[in-house]
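thread: overnight batch results

M.L. [08:02]
morning all. the overnight job finished for the chain we discussed friday. pasting input first so we're all looking at the same thing
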Amino acid sequence: MLTHHRKPVCLSHISTDLPFWSVVETAGTLYQKDTDRFHLLLTAPPLITCEVAFPSEIEDTATPHKTKAYTPTSPRVLWLEISPYRIIMTMQGNEQVSYRHFWEQGVYGVSRYWLPTESIQPNDPIRLRNFTKNLTLSGNPLPEHLRIEYELWAENVQLGHYILNLEIQH
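M.L. [08:03]
and the structure it wrote out:
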């Protein structure tokens, strides 16, 4: 049973204890794989990178942090595998960073990040753990709202508390 629906989507990701937040509003394609299993595919706008000149490189000392260039990167493809018990989110198609998160309530999942090829370890992902405190999926027969509350860990160091919120409009 593979059916698909094109839907407006709002995906937000925030930290409750760090200055981090991200919101993506776009159209997504929702594929129904089974009665309670779905895949959601969406394209997020490209990230914008910039180069900042150091004060010694700037002729005008009145603007000490003058931006030299803005370079939009390629669009990011986000793919979510959704079920009431487990969520997997993968971001690819961006030459800067790729990642894959696995969330299941009450479980330490794995988060992997792949950095650009010019990084120190180009082929080895950075592996972090996430502990899913709460995973809530609502909507019937199609998902309408997903909320994941989790902690991110590197070994024994907690890297913050996060909330991923997904709204699929019908």
